[in-house]
Amino acid sequence: MKIEIRADGAHISGYVNVTGKRSRPVITPHGKVIEEIEPRAFEQAIGRAGNITVTVDHDNSHVYASTDDGTLKLFEDDIGLHADVLVTDETLIELAKKGKVKGWSFGMYNVQDEVEPRADELPLRKVKSLDLDHLTLVVRKTPVYSATSVEVRADTQVEIETRTIETPLQVEQITPKYDNTAYHKRVQAVTRKEGT
Q1: Rounded to whole angstroms, how far apart are CA atoms 39 and 32?
Q2: Structure confidence by residue, pLDDT tens digits, 121-179
Q3: For a surface tag, which of 51, 86, 154, 162 has the fewest beta carbons within 10 Å of its beta carbon?
């Protein structure tokens, strides 16, 4: 995960999930398994999705960015699901500056999978298809794979599975390349002169 603090806010980018990579043990509707999301599952989910939002610690009471307003851009490449987020919320920017953003998480539903039993090991759950519910920046929660959670959406019960992964963090303060101080002083001098 890379965070750049610029004049317009915090630009946060990185891989939310690496496809084809096995997870640590995770609790799912199938019980405890090792999980792997197959390549192109995220690409197809993005293609089907409406607005995808960015929250903090899976708290959907406040949205920090979204695909609808252009502050969240998502794509899947040969590595996995990549996100670029622009955050303008001052509190979250301060947390990012202090290195308090620990990683990414995402919520998924309508999961289509295949579970392979393995001798003397946890079963392997291969996620072939999913719908992407939201992304979350992990601040207060422990960035490890988390258990299944169930939320009620539109008077129906939809099972939202959340996954959190810790990523290395790089925070960089970006300053403009050009110093326009002299220009601004000249403009102020001309403005004062014209005002007298």
Answers
A1: 22
A2: 999 999 999 999 999 988 887 544 433 333 333 444 556 776 655 555 566 666 666 66
A3: 154
User: Alpha helix locations (H) across 1-73?
Assistant: 41-48
Look-up: residue for tokens 């019960």? 157
Retrieve residue 163's tokens: 């996954």
Question: Among 159, 174, 115, 140, which Cα is nearest to 58's?
Answer: 140
C-alpha span between 145 and 68 (Å, rounded): 28
- Per residue in 172-184, pLDDT (tens digit) is 666 666 666 777 6
Q: Are 1 and 83 in contact (CB under 8 A)?
A: no
Question: Are 87 and 72 within 8 A, CB to CB?
Answer: no
CB distance 68 to 152 below 8 Å:
no
Integer Cα distance of 4 and 88 in angstroms: 12
Q: Under a CB-based contact definition with an 8 Å cutoff, are residues 10 and 3 in contact?
A: yes
Q: What angle is formed at CA 159 by the lines to CA 80 and CA 42, rounded to 5 degrees?
A: 15
